[in-house]
Amino acid sequence: MLRRAGPSLCRFLLERKSSAGYSSYSVEAKISRPVQAQRLEGIDKNIWVEFVKLAATYSTVNLGQGFPDFPPPDFLKEAFVRALSRENYMLHQYTRAFGHPPLVKILAQFFGKLLGRELDPMINVMVTVGAYQALFCCFQAFVEEGDEVIIIEPFFDCYEPMVKMAGGTPVFVPLRLKAPKDGKLMSSADWQLDPTELASKFSERTKAIVLNSPNNPLGKVFSRGELELIADLCVKHDVLCISDEVYEWLVYDGKEHIRIASLQGMWDRTVIIGSAGKTFSATGWKVGWTVGPNRLLQHLRTVHQNSVYHCATVAQEAMAQGFQRELELYGKPDSYFIQLPKELQQKRDWLVQSLDAVGMKPIIPEGTYFLVADISEFKSDVPDVPDSDEPYDSRFAKWMVKNKGLAAIPLSAFYCGAHKNNYNHFIRFCFAKEEATLKAANDILQKWKQEKTSP
Ligand code: PMP
Fold this sequence. Notes:
Layout: H1 7-19, H2 47-58, E1 61-62, H3 74-85, H4 101-115, E2 125-128, H5 130-142, E3 148-153, H6 159-165, E4 169-174, E5 176-177, E6 186-187, E7 191-192, H7 195-201, E8 206-212, H8 224-237, E9 240-244, E10 270-275, H9 276-279, E11 288-291, H10 294-305, H11 313-328, H12 336-358, E12 361-364, E13 370-374, H13 392-404, E14 406-407, E15 409-410, E16 426-430, H14 435-453
Parallel strand pairs: 1-14, 3-4, 3-8, 6-12, 8-9, 9-10
Antiparallel strand pairs: 2-11, 5-7, 10-11, 12-13, 13-16, 15-16
Helix pairs in contact: 2-13, 3-11, 4-11, 5-6, 5-10, 12-14
The protein binds 4'-deoxy-4'-aminopyridoxal-5'-phosphate.
4'-deoxy-4'-aminopyridoxal-5'-phosphate binds near residues 130, 216 and 283.
């Protein structure tokens, strides 16, 4: 605009600016001091940015990022449209910061029923911008400079940078895979914590442990025994539990999702985190929540109030109606929380069979919409580079998307530090996909297998 104004007007404007106390250098001056806050150091790279771009560029079939390629249920879409078009135009305005009243009320009723305790919607529930923001609030609210936070590997990748941004130190403990039984497919239950190793990670510096059951990426659903082990250590060392339960409804083969907050001594020290995105197959709506005791949630409210303030009112209104329906149909065959896992279990079985048939050995998940598969038999296609900094599975996944048009995520992306190279021959597939997408993936795998075996 200055250039178009001509040189004399330009000079005039600059002189006016400097006579008003601004330096004329402000137009051109470069910032010479470091702009990046130190707490961002080392966390600026993100696996999703890279793999989402690769999938968009090369893949014909994307089983990488975790979201359904099918629509949310009709009742939810209809609730959203109703909320948008209703006379009540106040649904287009701000609502209560800590959660739209109809949504927190129904969440309190729903989780009160599940946990067998009375919940106050105004103090025991807080709505967030997806589970992501719920996690962010927890770390910001609880973690101080020097605090340690135990993270079970493999883990949803944002836990580590979020702990660091809060000034804390992540302490990792791996789930260890039992040796395979000859010829038998393994299950996500074969990934287990070593109780002695877990106990050794707790100290007076430990502020919290992050639990993610059902677990992304493995699909492991922690058993009561495993949860009791964690709970006992939390109580013994006076440690908080940040319980990421976004896949709580996605459990298979009659397996039960147990909420750690329901175990002895755990309600007072646990924040339950949930996601409407996963619960109702609407990840783009970004509605999440936290449930817990006021003593913990009051601090989450402080972070929330001073960061995002609240999440979209219309989406919260529609979610409230979705939960209302689910409360009425609780445990009945028409409930979405019964139907979705039933459909996903079929998709899981289909993908398991498809991968097994080509020799990419799947580890059968007990929950979530992810499974990991062993790529060892495909090593001849993407030979190892022993001294490479990049884990083998990462190079394999990149090669696969570029050369076969099939996107998946390397398991090493869910590890940090020492254990990153221990489990680097697995890739994670998402099976929350239309039948046509899964069939297209199967076609790619079958063709690949034929090319490998034909002389
Ligand atoms: N936790 C886990 C374990 C997840 O897998 C995800 C999403 N992939 C989230 C939290 C974030 O959920 P949301 O989309 O509701 O922010």
